[in-house]
TrEMBL record:
It holds the Pfam family DUF4535. PANTHER family: OS07G0239500 PROTEIN, OS08G0156000 PROTEIN. The keyword Kinase does not apply. This is Secreted protein. Keywords: Signal. It comes from the Eukaryota. The lineage of its organism: Eukaryota, Viridiplantae, Streptophyta, Embryophyta, Tracheophyta.
Amino acid sequence: MVCFRLFPFLLGTAIGVYAAQNYKVPNLRRLAKRYEEEYRTKPEIAGEGRKKKVQVEIDDEEE
């Protein structure tokens, strides 16, 4: 009974080791870290991302 559960695990491990040694398998940790850094939202610095409001004074007085 244990043999039926252990065999697929060992077979998968052996195939994974063979593939990692003979083929160019990407490093998933480095790839995930690069994607995370690229798409991470950066915190906004107070006032930097906002547009400044310009107040215009209108003179209603006629000369």
